[in-house]
Design goal:
With 238 residues, the protein is an alpha+beta fold. It is built from 5 helices and 15 strands. The protein has a 15-stranded mixed sheet that branches. Strand 1 and strand 2 form a beta hairpin. The longest helix is centred in the last third of the chain and has 24 residues. The chain is globular.
Length: 238
């Protein structure tokens, strides 16, 4: 009986030990997926960078004919489209901020707490994501779009503009507004857009939704493998 108990315990603990070997703690800025031509500060990233490369403050991730997915905080995924670039401003769990300097990106927020400040800087303004949902940003056209959720857009000295589900906000170009930026911001108001039509026709949104499904399936499978085993260090794992 003693031998059987020892063997049973070994069989029970083996998957947990294997899981710990495979799991890596993932800080904000961890590269979660790359596809096509993707670079970090000008250096090309391959599939081997996934889970190991991390955007530090000031570093830029850019794409040409490619896409990338970056973890911001647990349950928040930044996805960069073709010919786009984002700079990590602050890789902190309490305040996580990136700047979209070129092209387009989406942010999927699956989990957010009152202590989290998830912010996307774009064209002289900062957008804070305050609810779970899916958001799109377009630096070339000065666009903030909320497919689901709620965002608050802030500009210096101005009252924040709310962008709720199925609404978008067009930002005045910083280079064109000049000294009239404050006046232009006062007149800003979010407007409704055809969410379903955009979701069905936009390649970046389709890709983001596909990545979301893959992550959901992976999490469901891993939950069964890791559940019930003690000894894991608390944290966010890739």
């Amino acid at each position: 009986v003693r031998i059987l108990l020892v063997l049973s315990l070994a069989a029970l603990l083996a998957p947990a030990a294997m899981a710990q070997d495979r799991m890596q703690q993932a800080p904000p800025g961890t590269v979660n997926y790359v596809e096509g031509s993707v670079a970090l500060d000008g250096q090309s990233l391959s599939a081997s960078a996934v889970g190991s490369k991390v955007l530090q403050a000031g570093q830029v991730s850019s794409t040409r004919n490619g896409r990338a997915e970056i973890l911001m905080t647990p349950g928040v995924f930044l996805r960069i489209g073709h010919n786009s670039a984002v700079q990590m401003v602050n890789p902190d769990l309490l305040k996580t901020e990136v700047r979209l300097t070129n092209g387009r990106a989406t942010v999927e927020v699956d989990s957010i707490y009152k202590q989290n400040r998830i912010e996307i800087a774009e064209d002289g303004v900062v957008t804070r994501l305050v609810k779970q949902g899916l958001y799109e940003f377009d630096a070339n056209n000065g666009l903030v779009r909320t497919y689901d959720g709620r965002a608050m857009v802030f500009a210096s000295g101005m009252r924040p503009v709310k962008v709720r589900t199925s609404h978008e906000l067009m930002l005045p170009p910083a280079q064109a507004a000049g000294s009239d930026t404050a006046v232009a911001m006062q007149a800003l108001k979010a407007r409704h857009f055809d969410r379903k039509r955009q979701e069905d026709s936009d390649a970046l949104i389709q890709w983001s939704k596909l990545r979301s499904r893959y992550l959901s399936q992976a999490n469901a499978q891993l939950a069964y493998e890791y559940a019930g085993y003690s000894g894991f260090v608390p944290g966010w794992y890739w």
